[in-house]
Design brief:
Largest sheet of chain B: 3 strands, antiparallel
Number of strands of chain A: 0
Radius of gyration of chain B: 22 Å
Strand order of the largest sheet of chain B: 3-4-5
Number of domains of chain B: 2
Order of helices and strands of chain B: HHEEEEHHEHHHHHHHHHHHHHHHH
Helix content of chain B: over 70%
Oligomer: heterodimer
Structural class of chain B: mainly alpha
Number of strands of chain B: 5
Largest interface: A-B, 34 and 34 residues
Order of helices and strands of chain A: HHHHHHH
């Protein structure tokens, strides 16, 4: 990572995934998801054209909008954040960041893409998998899946530039978000 | 007109149409089942890229459809795959009438079948991973049950299938760059590890097997059965494409040894868990684990007999899973307690469903005269030439399935004073189970006559002969 512009999206990815991981407030989660896809767009821009990279941004924001539309006002602040839990999550995230920084050079030997993409992608994948692993509520798992999948999209953008693949990845991102909405509605008994 | 338009685009459009009319269950069922059966018949009768005279006209179905610079190719050698997929679709759609599955079932499984055909025909074949993931996402609503929240099994299925995609795509990329890499052996090795993890997550191979029994217990039984039959079938055929395309994979003795060990672990764990399992819904999940283990064993033989068994073992499994999951969903709909111990006298209330379940179960167990026996026997013979210990372990797994089957038999015939069959099963149900059981018995009695035509599936994989 030579310049600040390479470092900024990595920091943004780390921060937004941390907010998604630790915070249970819906508004903050949707905002963090939107920021996360700005980071994804920024990182992918290093290897893709603007036209292709912006597809990721739009798809991510659409996913956020889909999820945001499913939440009623009275549900927005129903979950309280537990301070102990948040501290634990922050510490474990920092440990993961350190591990990723230390192994990124080894991965670069196998994956010939810019450092910032490797680090940003791995941070998103790790935090996403962690969230999937320790969450019980379906919607938190959906946020984790979106985070992990966006990390994979960043890494895969470095090696694959197919338009068809980009289209399929958009469909998967939107599909996961739509499933999140279905899960919320099924919990409320509105689907079947 | 091209084959991908007929067998991918039209079914997808029809699935979309049926989605909007899903509230009219009978209409969507008859349309979906009818079109699926028609497409299977069409694949049986029409030859792709051959002129077909039709009165004064002549029709030729081309094999390729190009989308955004990538090709979807359905060659004439793929027709048996189409027949298998769409006849399976018709069977499952028509059976959904008596299973009590939700209104998403027909349109969604129609779309899933079309997507799986797309996955097996896309070139480069690695893109199949993305299409399979889209099919998995579409499959989730079919598990929903009235008044029940989303359960852990459904979530775990979604998570494992989604996490598999990156591993498969990166392994494919690794195999592509390995020949030009400085240390190509190392690059192949790393790609091989990613491939193993990806397929492990997809096929629920040890240690990623936990979603199978959970989904069998938490999701709607019939919907879970559909996924257990079609998802591994598609992925196992996709897996063959890797072995067909990358010579390096076929030359790795260590890889086949690892696949063999994993196959044995799956069979032993599945069999032992089944023997001690009390919940009937989860029992089906363990049978599926054993079946996946046998597919891995067939693959590990790395010989013609292994590749052939790999295909042949798929067919009776599909019918077995269909009738077993249908029986379970019928019992669940009747609000029966799914603990095996509480199913005393079940045969006298549901004789057709019970016989269907028993025949399906003993097909998984490999009982002689049922099709599980002639399809598993070549794998066991091939394995016995390699190692005696492996055969003993596999026998332990199969013994576990037999124990579960006989325990079920003992319970369903017990505690009935009069021993009079007091059934009130609908005619449609009787027909469905009679057809399923007859299929299994006939295939079991004349396996080469009914199963050998499916070996044509292998003709699409020119390097595996």
């Amino acid at each position: 990572m030579d310049t600040l512009t390479d470092l900024l999206p990595v920091l943004l990815a780390g921060l937004s995934s941390l907010i998604l991981f630790t915070n249970k407030n819906w508004r903050w989660n949707i905002l963090a998801l939107a920021l996360q896809y700005v980071a994804v767009f920024w990182m992918v821009l290093q290897v893709w054209t603007l036209g292709m990279a912006v597809v990721k941004l739009i798809a991510g924001w659409m996913a956020g909008a889909i999820l945001g539309s499913a939440v009623s006002d009275e549900k927005i602040n129903t979950e309280n954040d537990n301070n102990m839990e948040q501290r634990f999550k922050i510490i474990i995230s920092v440990i993961i960041w350190i591990i990723i920084f230390s192994v990124s050079q080894g991965i670069k030997l196998w994956l010939p893409i810019p450092d910032s993409i490797i680090i940003g992608g791995l941070i998103l994948i790790s935090i996403g998998i962690l969230q999937v692993g320790i969450s019980v509520r379906p919607i938190r798992i959906i946020f984790g899946l979106l985070t992990a999948f966006s990390g994979f999209e960043v890494l895969y953008a470095g090696v694959e530039r197919s338009v068809l693949v980009a289209g399929f990845l958009v469909l998967i991102t939107l599909g996961i978000a739509l499933l999140g909405v279905l899960f919320i509605q099924q919990q409320e008994g509105e689907i079947i | 007109m091209s084959a991908p338009i007929i067998w991918i685009v039209i079914p997808l459009l029809l699935a979309l149409f049926l989605f909007f009319f899903r509230a009219n269950r009978l209409f969507s069922l008859l349309t979906g089942g009818g079109v699926s059966a028609f497409l299977a018949l069409l694949a049986l009768t029409f030859r792709i890229e051959r002129v077909f005279p039709l009165g004064p006209l002549s029709i030729e179905i081309s094999s390729t459809l190009t989308v955004l610079g990538r090709n979807f190719v359905i060659a004439d050698t793929d027709r048996f795959m189409l027949i298998l997929m769409f006849s399976l679709g018709a069977f499952w759609i028509l059976g959904s009438r008596i299973s009590g599955s939700n209104s998403f079932f027909v349109p969604n499984i129609f779309a899933i079948i079309a997507l799986f055909v797309a996955a097996l025909s896309v070139q480069p074949f690695l893109y199949a991973a993305l299409i399979i993931e889209i099919a998995v996402l579409i499959s989730i609503p079919i598990f929903f049950q009235r008044g029940e929240p989303v359960k852990q099994g459904i979530m775990r299925f979604l998570v494992f299938q989604t996490l598999a995609v990156p591993f498969i795509l990166f392994s494919g990329w690794g195999f592509e760059i390995a020949p030009s890499s400085i240390d190509s052996q190392q690059a192949y090795f790393q790609a091989g590890i990613l491939l193993a993890i990806g397929f492990g997550l997809w096929l629920a191979i040890f240690p990623f097997y936990s979603w199978i029994p959970l989904l069998a217990g938490d999701g709607h039984a019939y919907s879970a059965g559909f996924i257990f039959s079609i998802l591994p079938t598609t992925i196992l055929i996709f897996f063959l494409e890797f072995f067909n395309s990358y010579n390096w994979l076929r030359e790795q003795v260590l890889l086949f040894s690892i696949i063999q060990v994993l196959g044995i672990i799956m069979i032993v764990l599945g069999g032992l868990f089944a023997a001690f399992q009390r919940s009937l819904t989860r029992l089906l999940g363990y049978a599926v684990m054993v079946e996946i283990g046998f597919s891995l064993l067939a693959l590990s033989l790395n010989q013609v007999i292994g590749w052939q068994s790999y295909i042949l073992i798929l067919i009776p499994r599909l019918v077995g899973i269909a009738i077993c999951s249908l029986a379970i969903s019928i019992w669940k709909n009747q609000k029966l307690n799914m603990d095996i111990e509480s199913l005393k006298g079940l045969f006298f209330k549901f004789p057709f469903a019970t016989i269907g379940f028993i025949v399906g179960w003993f097909t998984f167990s490999g009982l002689p005269l049922l099709p599980g026996f002639p399809t598993k026997l070549p794998i066991l013979i091939g394995l016995s030439e390699i190692s005696l210990q492996s055969i003993i372990l596999v026998s332990v797994g199969l013994f576990g399935l037999f124990v579960a089957g006989f325990r079920f038999l003992a319970i369903i015939f017990s505690e009935r004073e009069t021993n009079i069959i007091n059934e009130s099963e609908p005619v449609l149900r009787k027909i469905f189970f009679s057809v399923g059981v007859s299929c299994l018995l006939v295939i079991g009695l004349f396996p080469s006559y009914f199963l050998n035509p499916f070996l044509s599936l292998l003709s699409a994989f020119t390097n595996l002969k």
